[in-house]
Amino acid sequence: MSCTCKRFFVFSSPSRFAGGFCLLLLLLGALGCGANRKSFFGGDAAVRLDADSGINQDSPVAVEMIVVYDKDLLEELLAKTARQWFESREQVLKDHPGEKDFVSMSWEVVPGQSLPPKELSFGTGARGGIVFADYFSDGAHRARFDPHKDLRIHLQDKNFSVEQPQ
Fold it and tell me: Are 129 and 83 members of one domain?
């Protein structure tokens, strides 16, 4: 006795069905189930920078915002103070050429200055972000931020803050 079975699946084989199912799950995860699309595709970190009057003994402050892809480099940079970062910056750029390990944007901000919003574009795989501000006063003058969220850097008298929306 012979039996004739018809396939009721849209896919012609179980492996294609599994591949299609995985693709569907990935798309649902990336596009709507609470996932942050910037983490999958990279994006632009929008930054606004404001400085109070009289900051840094009424002198300009060098500021650098960095988005890091390499986890070892991120840990290395998180151990540095702003002064150490600015002293070793050129060597770090030589050791990590191109934009494979990190991307950055820098400013020199004078007291009382408010800069128009800017965007730092970054690719996939961003591990974290760091802001360094080179004040005269002692201190780390370093803050970590989530590159997948916009931020405001607020330079104050002897230190700064990074604010991000929840």
Answer: yes
Q: What average pLDDT values come out for the chain (166 residues) when binned by 10 residues? A: 47 55 50 43 86 97 96 96 97 92 96 94 92 97 95 96 90
Task: Round to the nearest angstrom and report the end-to-end CA distance of the chain.
Answer: 67
13 φ/ψ sector (left φ>0, alpha ψ -120 to 50, else beta): beta
Task: For residue 58, give the H/E element and its range.
Answer: helix 55-58
CATH of the domain at 88: 2.60.40.4150
Look up tokens 């501000």; give the residue: 133
User: Domain tally for the chain?
Assistant: 2
Do residues 61 and 26 both lie within one domain? no
The backbone torsions φ and ψ at residue 47, rounded to the nearest 5 degrees and listed phi first, read -130, 140
